[in-house]
Amino acid sequence: MAGTKNISPSRSQQEMESILKAVKTIDELREQFEKAGCAEAKEYFANLAVNVSGLICRGVAEWAIDALAEGGDRLALARLLEARIGGVPDNIAESFALALRRVDYGDHDPLLEPRHASNKVRFTQRQQQLAVLSRIEFEQGRGRRRGDAEAVALAAQGIRVEDNKKTLRDWRKSLRLRFGQRCVENALALSKICGMLCRQQQVATVIEALAEAFAKELHVLAPDTVQPKKAARLRRQ
């Protein structure tokens, strides 16, 4: 099929070892999930496990996923959902795949209708703010000081502000309100872990490439280890 790459499903030894390590990580995350004493902690470990599962799927069948995703439009996403990429429950995958096909056809679907039309700040701006905060965590995980990490993250998005600390604090507060505290904190925690893994060079080539994509595009990755302090704090809650 034109436009696809890496059609051969063969994997290097290093990549296979990384995939096997990720499979073992899911078992470890399940143990942490079962020990967790609150809903927030359980969601945290479940989120990590699902992300690891997606990483395994992409590592094993990247060529197939890329083939289904050709074009990057609504129909491409519908095809991915119909193929159960990422382990999305059948009823959710079917509902959203159908909604995407309806909208692409020209019909309306309530699943894809805007809900907060009165928001003053557009979603793309909120997404950019989250990208900056996530990049800060990523850079700190790689070993940069907080101030340097903030400068790098803002420069990467072409943003200039008079008071970095106040602006970033306001962004975090607003994002928690609009996107949900758990969603934001999980994204930031994953970002920092990815930076730590890159710094420690504990990831295989395929995961390093995804981590670099994350730093640029805000693709949230899963780690092959749980951040000890974060996990311990959540279990105490």
Could you characterize what this model shows?
By secondary structure, this protein is mainly α. The protein has helices at 13-35, 39-68, 74-82, 90-105, 123-141, 146-156, 164-179, 181-200, 205-217, 228-236. The longest helix has 30 residues, at 39-68. The radius of gyration is 19 Å and the shape is globular. The protein folds into 2 domains: 13-112, no CATH class; 123-226, no CATH class. Helices cover 70% and strands 0% of the residues.
Summarize the structure.
By secondary structure, the protein is mostly helical. Helix content is 70%, strand content 0%. It is globular and about 45 Å long.
Unreliable stretches (pLDDT < 50, length at least 5) are 1-9, 213-237
Shape: globular
Count of spatially separate domains: 2
Please tally the β strands and state the result: 0
Provide the β-strand percentage band. Answer: under 5%
Order of helices and strands: HHHHHHHHHH
Radius of gyration: 19 Å
Could you report the average pLDDT, rounded to the nearest whole number?
75
Number of helices: 10
- Main sheet overview: none
Alpha-beta content class: mainly alpha
Distance between the termini: 51 Å
* Helical residues, percent: over 70%
How would you describe this structure in keywords?
0% strand; mainly alpha; globular; 10 helices; 237 residues; 2 domains
Task: Please render the helix and strand layout as text.
Elements: H1 13-35, H2 39-68, H3 74-82, H4 90-105, H5 123-141, H6 146-156, H7 164-179, H8 181-200, H9 205-217, H10 228-236
Helix pairs in contact: 1-2, 3-4, 5-6, 5-7, 5-8, 7-8, 8-9
